[in-house]
Amino acid sequence: MEQDIQEVLFSKEYLDQTVRELGSRISRDYEGKNLLLVSVLKGSVVFMADLMRAITIPCSIDFMAVSSYGAGVKTSGVVRIIKDLDINLEGWDLLLVEDILDSGMTLSYIREMLQQRNPKSIKLCTLFDKPERRTVDLNADYSGLNVPNEFIVGYGLDYNEKYRNLPYVGILKPEVYGG
Ligand code: IMP
Ligand code: MG
Fold first, then answer.
1. How are strands ordered across the β-sheet holding 152-153?
2. Domain Phosphoribosyltransferase, which positions (predicted)?
3. Whose CA is nearest to atom 22 of ligand 1?
4. Which of 4, 141, 158, 170 could hold 123 in an S-S bridge, CB 3.0 to 4.6 Å?
5. Cβ(5)–Cβ(170) below 8 Å
6. Domain 13-147 CATH assignment equals 3.40.50.2020
7. How confident is the model over 60-76, as pLDDT tens digits?
8. Is any atom of ligand 1 closer than 6 Å to the C-beta of 105?
9. Residues recognised as catalytic
């Protein structure tokens, strides 16, 4: 895998530090609340696993899996649920945990859908953000690191289902894309 990486953007230590800071902010803000972390598989599992351990107040977790309608082309963000949440959201302070916020279309749709299940509150936490790529009006309440408009892999993020297990985040060499 290493030889496919052009440049390391964020080291494991830097990511650890960023996640610890997000965890402390969330722990402070959600003190006394009914915190439920929800993430959409699969990209955010690594972040979720580290973030939950950086949170020092009681919290629960749940996961959902979705697939975009239509193949290939950029979708409208409309998704089909492959695996729904186990937990009924009523009464929970929901925090959506995302790996990376890009166009924001998928998450915007999911947020709308979960809002209709009457959680007590709903907020959004993303580790990485590409703000200039946004096509919908959606902003993270907790955002870790802004990233340049490049395709990054590692720490859960994939290219063709590969590189998720890299402990750091890097930019792929263009030749890996066949470019
Ligand atoms: P959005 O609906 O355009 O915001 O899509 C966000 C999703 O696209 C993320 O959850 C990732 O799965 C994927 N994605 C966007 N940018 C990258 C990247 O640089 N590397 C890996 N996956 C990415
Ligand atoms: Mg992906």
1. 5-10, 169-172, 152-153
2. 13-159
3. 157
4. 141
5. yes
6. yes
7. 999 999 987 765 555 57
8. yes
9. 102
Burial class (CB within 10 angstroms; exposed 0-12, middle 13-18, buried 19+) of 20: middle
Index of the ligand 1 atom closest to the CA of residue 103: 3
* pLDDT tens digits for range 138-165: 999 999 999 988 899 999 999 999 999 9
Determine the average pLDDT of the residues in 105-128.
Answer: 96
Is the C-beta atom of 108 inside 6 A of ligand 1? Answer: no
Which amino acid residue places its CA nearest to atom 15 of ligand 1?
102
Residue 5 pairs in a beta bridge with 172
* Centroid of ligand 1 to alpha carbon of 151 (angstroms): 9
Task: Tell me, using a 6 A CB cutoff, whether residue 93 lines ligand 1.
Answer: no
**Domain layout of the chain by residue ranges:** 13-147
pTM: 0.94
Which residue, among 14, 65, 73, 68, has the nearest Cα to 44 in the 3D structure?
65
Answer whether 156 contacts ligand 1 (Cβ < 6 A): no
Residue 136 has pLDDT above 70, yes or no: yes
